[in-house]
Design brief:
Largest sheet: none
Strand content: under 5%
Length: 71
């Protein structure tokens, strides 16, 4: 950073807060809803029984769905 500054080179980048927001799916979806940006229907589940119910709510098996596990 100091090297660029000393040579009067400007770096354009998103703010740390913006990067963190876009990396947090829950917060990002909440922001989209707040500013009226449409988002796909989604669920966060913690139990396998809930997963089956949510898959059906999303239209499975008649529609394709995405399941993304977390760490």
């Amino acid at each position: 950073k100091n090297l660029f500054h000393s040579k009067n080179i400007k770096i354009l980048s998103s703010s740390k807060e913006s990067i963190e927001l876009t990396n947090d799916k829950v917060k990002f979806i909440e922001l989209c809803k707040k500013i009226n940006i449409p988002t796909p229907k989604q669920f966060i589940v913690t139990k396998s029984e809930d997963l089956v119910h949510c898959c059906i709510q999303l239209g499975y098996p008649h529609k394709k769905i995405v399941i993304k596990p977390t760490k």
